[in-house]
Automatic annotation (TrEMBL):
It comes from Roseisalinus antarcticus. Belongs to the type-I restriction system S methylase family. Residues 294-330 form the YgjP-like metallopeptidase domain. GO terms for molecular function: DNA binding. Gene3D superfamilies: DNA methylase specificity domains, Metalloproteases ('zincins'), catalytic domain. It holds the Pfam family Methylase_S. This is Type I restriction modification DNA specificity domain protein. GO terms for biological process: DNA restriction-modification system. Residues 130-179 form the Type I restriction modification DNA specificity domain. Keywords: DNA-binding, Restriction system.
Length: 333
């Protein structure tokens, strides 16, 4: 565990909970979804911020009744104790008052006379809390934490006013990051809309007219089939970053010992991988982007040969291409 400041005593989490509401997990077998039932909180419901109320699982009052010990109140903490998101923590909002939890979630009812719930949340989310999770986490196919171990988590405890101030500062940063994340998600949806509508010709940009036509992909691109010499660096295709060096991006190379059979990617090449992702179920398409060569290859899309039309087009899209070419050649010499 990392060192704590001398002035902050460390207190076991079990000593910070409300009397009669010890750290506990919830319903073991929730049964079928019931539209008007009791809300059941699972780790997925808060792993990326609280989901909308309509997305929660609900159980019958009969299933909920034996688990009164794990009922939630506003200000309680929920901590994922089983699965890939073990260690994820959140503060229960007022609109989840009376909800229950599953057996994969622990309820931590912090006594506000001893600690500020928002402060304890931030400690559990910090390196201090995550180190405790790592230390006590049990391995196997389903990683997890025992409640007895969660009770041992040590919380550095400054005076209550200082706890409150620390929680306020960190929560302000959290809210700012949440807004940035939401804005990014909105911009991604807008980009998807533009791609979906502009490429069909059904929505036209102002000032543009004329008919759209469809041609076979082979009319504008060809697979050159150049093979690796074995000396090139091995790159992977990333959804968000395009072509990335495996060692730099992933920490190590996943390539075979002999890469002679790998395809060589030239500057400006369009690269396709069949590996599906959630956003790209049919695979990923990216372009290798390097200054002049990118423009060179983009011109090839419109004019596949190095004739007069090719250089005429190159002059239009990059008038200083010859200077760039000389600079690139000097750098490669």
């Amino acid at each position: 565990m990392r060192e704590r400041p001398q002035s902050f005593p460390s207190v076991a989490l079990a000593k910070l909970v409300q009397k009669g509401r010890k750290i506990t997990y919830g319903i073991v077998q929730p049964g079928e979804f019931v539209a008007d039932g009791v809300i059941l909180v699972r780790g997925r419901d808060y792993s990326a911020g609280w989901r909308d109320i309509d997305g929660f699982m609900r159980v019958t009052p009969e299933i909920d009744a034996p688990y009164k010990r794990s009922k939630l109140k506003p200000g309680d903490l929920v901590l994922t104790i089983v699965g890939a998101n073990t260690g994820t923590v959140a503060v229960v909002p007022a609109w989840l008052d009376g909800a229950n939890i599953t057996q994969t979630t622990a309820r931590i009812a912090v006594d506000s006379t001893k600690a500020i719930p928002g402060y304890v949340e931030q400690v559990l989310r910090s390196a201090i809390g995550q180190e405790a999770v790592y230390r006590f986490q049990k391995g196997g196919a389903q990683p997890g934490l025992n409640l007895a171990d969660v009770e041992k988590f040590e919380i550095p405890l400054p005076p209550l006013p200082e706890q409150r101030k620390i929680a306020e500062i960190l929560r302000t940063w959290d809210q700012a990051l949440e807004k940035i994340t939401a804005l990014r998600a909105l911009n991604i949806r807008r980009r998807v809309w533009f791609r979906t509508h502009l490429f069909t010709g059904k929505v036209r940009l102002p000032g543009f007219t004329g008919e759209w036509r469809e041609v076979p992909l082979s009319d504008v691109l060809h697979e050159h089939g150049s093979k690796s010499t074995g000396a090139e660096e091995v790159y992977s295709v990333s959804v968000h970053k395009g072509l990335v060096n495996q060692v730099e991006h992933l920490g190590r190379s996943f390539s075979a010992a002999n890469t002679d059979h790998y395809n060589r990617v030239l500057p400006g090449d369009i690269v396709y991988t069949k590996s599906p992702t959630g956003d790209f179920p049919l695979g990923i398409i990216k372009q290798s982007k390097i200054d002049r060569e990118v423009t060179h290859e983009l011109c090839h899309v419109a004019e596949p040969h190095h004739g007069a039309a090719f250089f005429e087009l190159l002059d239009k899209v990059m008038p200083d291409w010859e200077r760039r070419k000389q600079r690139l050649e000097r750098a490669m010499a």
